[in-house]
Design a protein that fits this description.
Blueprint lengths: L23 H8 L10 E9 L5 H10 L12 E10 L2 E10 L6 H4 L8 E7 L3 H5 L1 H11 L5 E7 L11 H9 L4 E5 L8 H72 L6 H67 L1
Parallel strand pairs: 1-3, 1-4, 4-5, 5-6
Antiparallel strand pairs: 2-3
Length: 339
């Protein structure tokens, strides 16, 4: 047997050599376990796509390992790396998928679009054909990715500025035609804008999730409230119908009693007790009907106010999204001025 794989077994007496003489304090210390790391608050999947040779693997490795390889081999199928980041006071575990750019691998890589919360589409600023391939990659996104995925267009190899073919304005124009797509340029070799690419994408995902969560919570509360109110309204209407029916019955009985009383009056004998009883029943029924009418109006007024409040919440969400977009645009302009 190869001695490299020869693992010594623990002695039968409950410890190895010298363990019998070890102090209890040392034994307790050896049994003491390390505190487990705090679990991630979010787990997000990001996929990097683009034509062959644009630097997808280099961007991923620069972000996850802070390394760069000049002679990087082409990815076969898919590869991935894990990195945990802290953002907004949250611990986020990122699973970053690097996909092959060759068309023959499309059937394999397409499966990884579906679970992606963020998609980084990369082209090489020194190669015209990689930019012309962007519509093809957008078709893949439209076909396989979720409509909720955040999109980021990256012009890579900014370190080759002297060989640039695709201008920054061309990249910006392409991104502006895609709803919700952001744009930036980067260099994996010089480690320029690499962290910003992924962290900004994660921030956008979290922002969108927060807005979506707020919207879903608002709709859930509204639906629950409306269901309860509809049930109460229906119940009140049923009670009102019953009360109105009782009123009609009592009115009919009162008229019959009055007719009987008139007939009996001709003989000098009037059943006044029956008449008073029926009048009292009718008064009670009318009071119940009025009360139910008032309660019904109150409930319907509450429902109307709730709908108004929900509309205000929707407007606030829209205002938050507009403000977020304006802030992002301002940050982009500030970054351009610095450059």
């Amino acid at each position: 047997m190869d001695p490299r794989y020869d693992i010594p077994r623990r002695a039968a007496g409950g410890g190895g050599g010298g363990s019998a003489n070890s102090s209890p304090a040392l034994g307790a210390q050896s049994r003491r376990r390390k505190m487990p790391p705090r679990p991630a608050d979010f787990k997000l999947q990001i996929i990097i796509i683009g034509s062959r040779g644009v630097g997808k693997t280099s961007l991923m490795e620069r972000f996850t390992d802070d390394t760069f390889c000049e002679a990087c081999k082409s990815t076969v199928g898919v590869d991935f790396k894990i990195k945990t980041v802290e953002l907004r006071g949250k611990k986020i575990r990122l699973q970053i998928w690097d996909t092959a750019g060759q068309e023959r691998f499309n059937s394999i890589t397409s499966a990884y679009y579906r679970g992606a919360k963020g998609i980084v589409l990369v082209y090489d600023i020194t190669k015209q054909e990689t930019f012309e391939d962007l519509p093809k990659w957008m078709k893949m996104i439209d076909k396989y990715a979720s409509e909720e995925a955040e999109l980021l267009l990256v012009g890579n190899k900014l370190d080759c500025e002297t060989d640039r073919i695709i201008s920054r304005q061309q990249g910006e124009r392409f991104a502006s035609r895609i709803s919700g797509m952001r744009f930036c340029e980067a260099s994996a070799k010089d480690n320029f804008n690499v962290d910003e690419i992924f962290l900004k994408l994660v921030d956008d995902i979290l922002s969108k999730d927060e807005v979506d969560e707020l919207r879903a919570e608002m709709e859930e509360v509204r639906d629950s409230y409306l269901e309860e109110e509809v049930y109460q309204v229906q119940e009140l209407r049923r009670e009102l119908d019953r009360s109105n029916k009782n009123c009609r019955i009592l009115q009919y009985r009162l008229r019959k009693a009055e007719q009987k009383s008139l007939r009996v009056a001709q003989t000098g004998h009037v059943d006044g007790e029956l008449l008073r009883s029926l009048e009292q029943d009718l008064k009670v029924a009318k009071d119940v009907s009025v009360r139910l009418h008032n309660e019904l109006e109150i409930v319907e007024d509450k429902r109307s106010r709730a709908e108004d409040e929900n509309e205000l919440l929707r407007q606030k969400i829209i205002e938050v999204e507009i403000a977020k977009q304006a802030l992002a645009n301002e940050l982009e302009r500030t970054k351009e001025v610095r450059e």
